């Protein structure tokens, strides 16, 4: 036999021999269960991978699987000393994760589905390898949560914080500035703290880095907490400084120069400097010895609570079978609920409203809300005898799901890349969420959004999701409707007043929406 072939044939044997005998079968069972769970949730893993690769906010997650592998590797010798046994309470974690996945499917919330898909893998580790091994691998397992692309949900709040920090610093440096939501006006021009400037990318990555460093380099819980707080506060403050610096440079050299400076210098060097600064300040306080163990197998073995928990054993074959049963039942439940669809009329139209008449749709700046996947979409303009105008957008969905989410990201009054930007919350209108928007010109607009599902009328996306979840849990088919009443700010005709007058003329909003959709 050729030496190369002999060497190639020997490798699997050496790899197998490197594993303790007691670990070989459990690891094979764990691998099989992970493969099955990933296959069942393939759409979610594919969506996550797409975000890791194509969204700059989540590019850092591409490193997370390798970090998890490294964290397991540095614990391998201590973990190998722990006894392995299938553990039935781990199935409760699998079941809870499967239920979260189902809820995410019902609500059309991909982040819940993705969270459930990841936690099912964590639960499988506890169920197949037991509580002591799960305790030994607690941090690598917890770090798996960073596989879920989270962070875009806080972008609007970060935009506001960044804008306020920038204006505060501008005031301190004697640069006149007026803040209107996320827009800043200075003598140099009109600036927007856009979504890309919110600092979410850096904050999300910094939190992931901070969690890793806190575990690997610190022992003291207090020092870990202080370091994590630093990793949250410093990026937010640094982004405010970045915005202030960009505007300050615009005052000095002009907007075009400042824009290029921001992307070239800050994009490549500023946040790298911030990371180096945080790590440099924390370095002297690292209290874990470089050669120290990351876990203590003896302490885990002598733990009375873990010893009591470890008594709840189950057969290895039964554990795998129940994991598959739970996952398959969740998938089947989701599939059955996903086929629910309410009966809708073949055609819908905007109704007549007392004191108002339909007019040609001609906004000062193009405005067309996004209602992806809606079965019916309407958009029109009304005017009253005093010259007030409103735009009305209505969408009707037979069901909610992936690609047809009434309150999904980017849906509604402010579609991405439309030229419209969120400025601030608007005056409260019962049953709705009110937003002030701005577009080049500048053109300002106020939009009141109502969601309707069954008897629920709300402006809260969360409450809408809960109503959709309840319908699917009990396999009820209710349509979902979205109404957006909007008006541009006009001299002598405030947008808020126009919207309120129109809503009063239309009568109770919920029944009005039902009549348009023919659902009541």
Structural commentary:
The chain is of the alpha+beta class and 520 residues long. It has three domains: 20-152 and 313-338, no CATH class; 154-283, no CATH class; 356-517, no CATH class. 54% of the residues lie in helices and 13% in strands. It has 19 helices and eleven strands. It has helices at residues 3-18, 21-40, 42-54, 64-73, 76-79, 89-107, 110-129, 131-136, 138-143, 155-172, 200-217, 221-253, 255-283, 297-302, 304-309, 316-338, 461-473, 495-506, 509-517, and strands at 178-180, 183-186, 189-192, 356-359, 376-384, 389-397, 421-425, 433-439, 443-453, 456-458, 480-488. A hairpin with a 2-residue loop joins strand 2 (183-186) and strand 3 (189-192). The longest helix has 33 residues, at 221-253. The model is unreliable at 1-12 (pLDDT under 50).
Average pLDDT for all residues: 88
Class by alpha and beta content: alpha+beta
Report the end-to-end length measured between terminal Cα atoms: 81 Å
Low-pLDDT stretches are 1-12
Number of helices: 19
Q: Which overall shape is indicated by the principal axes computed on the Cα atoms?
A: flat
Please trace the helix and strand order, writing H or E for each element: HHHHHHHHHHEEEHHHHHHEEEEEEEHEHH
Number of DSSP strand runs: 11
Radius of gyration: 28 Å
SSE topology:
Layout: H1 3-18, H2 21-40, H3 42-54, H4 64-73, H5 76-79, H6 89-107, H7 110-129, H8 131-136, H9 138-143, H10 155-172, E1 178-180, E2 183-186, E3 189-192, H11 200-217, H12 221-253, H13 255-283, H14 297-302, H15 304-309, H16 316-338, E4 356-359, E5 376-384, E6 389-397, E7 421-425, E8 433-439, E9 443-453, E10 456-458, H17 461-473, E11 480-488, H18 495-506, H19 509-517
Antiparallel strand pairs: 1-2, 2-3, 4-5, 5-6, 6-11, 7-8, 8-9, 9-10, 9-11
Helix pairs in contact: 2-7, 2-16, 6-7, 6-16, 6-17, 10-12, 11-12, 12-13
Organism: Novosphingobium tardum
GO molecular function: hydrolase activity
Domain Methanolan biosynthesis EpsI: 319-508
């Amino acid at each position: 036999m050729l030496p190369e072939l002999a060497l190639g044939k020997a490798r699997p044997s050496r790899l197998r021999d490197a594993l303790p005998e007691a670990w070989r079968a459990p690891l094979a069972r764990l691998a099989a269960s992970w493969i099955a769970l990933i296959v069942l949730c393939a759409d979610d893993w594919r969506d996550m991978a797409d975000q890791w690769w194509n969204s700059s906010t989540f590019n850092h997650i591409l490193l997370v699987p390798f970090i998890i592998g490294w964290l397991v590797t540095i614990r391998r010798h201590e973990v190998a000393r722990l006894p392995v046994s299938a553990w039935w309470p781990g199935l409760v974690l699998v079941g809870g994760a499967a239920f979260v996945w189902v809820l995410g499917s019902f609500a059309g919330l991909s982040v819940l589905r993705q969270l459930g898909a990841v936690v099912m893998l964590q639960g499988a580790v506890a169920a197949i390898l037991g509580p002591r091994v799960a305790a030994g691998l607690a941090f690598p397992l917890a770090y798996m949560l960073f596989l879920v692309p989270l962070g875009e949900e806080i972008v609007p709040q970060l935009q506001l914080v960044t804008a306020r920090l920038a204006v505060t610093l501008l005031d301190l440096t004697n640069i006149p500035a007026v803040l209107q939501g996320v827009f800043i006006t200075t003598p140099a021009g009109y600036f927007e703290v856009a979504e890309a400037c919110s600092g979410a990318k850096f904050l999300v990555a910094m939190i992931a880095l901070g969690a890793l460093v806190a575990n690997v380099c610190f022992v003291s819980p207090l020092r870990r907490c202080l370091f994590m707080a630093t990793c949250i506060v410093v990026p937010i403050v640094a982004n405010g400084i970045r915005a202030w610096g960009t505007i300050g440079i615009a005052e000095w050299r002009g907007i075009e120069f400042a824009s290029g400076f921001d992307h070239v210098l800050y994009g490549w060097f500023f946040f790298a400097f911030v990371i180096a600064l945080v790590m440099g300040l924390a370095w002297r306080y690292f209290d874990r010895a470089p050669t120290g163990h990351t876990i203590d197998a003896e302490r885990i073995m002598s733990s009375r609570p873990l010893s009591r928990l470890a008594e709840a054993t189950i057969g290895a074959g039964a554990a795998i079978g129940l994991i598959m049963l739970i996952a398959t039942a969740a998938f089947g439940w989701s599939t059955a609920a996903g086929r629910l669809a309410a009966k809708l009329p073949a055609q819908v139209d905007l109704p007549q409203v007392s004191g108002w008449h339909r007019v040609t749709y001609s906004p000062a700046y193009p405005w067309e809300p996004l209602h992806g996947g809606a079965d019916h979409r309407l958009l029109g303009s009304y005017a009253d005898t005093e010259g007030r105008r409103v735009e009305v957008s209505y969408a009707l969905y037979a069901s909610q799901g992936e690609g047809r989410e009434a309150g999904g990201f980017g849906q509604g009054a402010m579609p991405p890349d439309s030229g419209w930007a969120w400025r601030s919350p608007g005056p409260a209108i019962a049953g709705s969420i009110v937003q002030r928007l701005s577009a080049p010109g500048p053109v300002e607009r106020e939009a009141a959004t109502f969601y309707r599902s069954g008897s629920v009328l709300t402006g809260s996306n969360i409450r809408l999701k809960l109503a959709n979840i309840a319908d699917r849990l009990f396999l009820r088919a209710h349509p979902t409707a979205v109404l957006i009443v909007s008006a541009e700010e006009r001299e002598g005709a405030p947008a808020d007043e126009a919207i309120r007058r129109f809503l009063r003329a239309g009568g109770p909003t919920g029944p009005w929406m039902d009549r348009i959709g023919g659902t009541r």
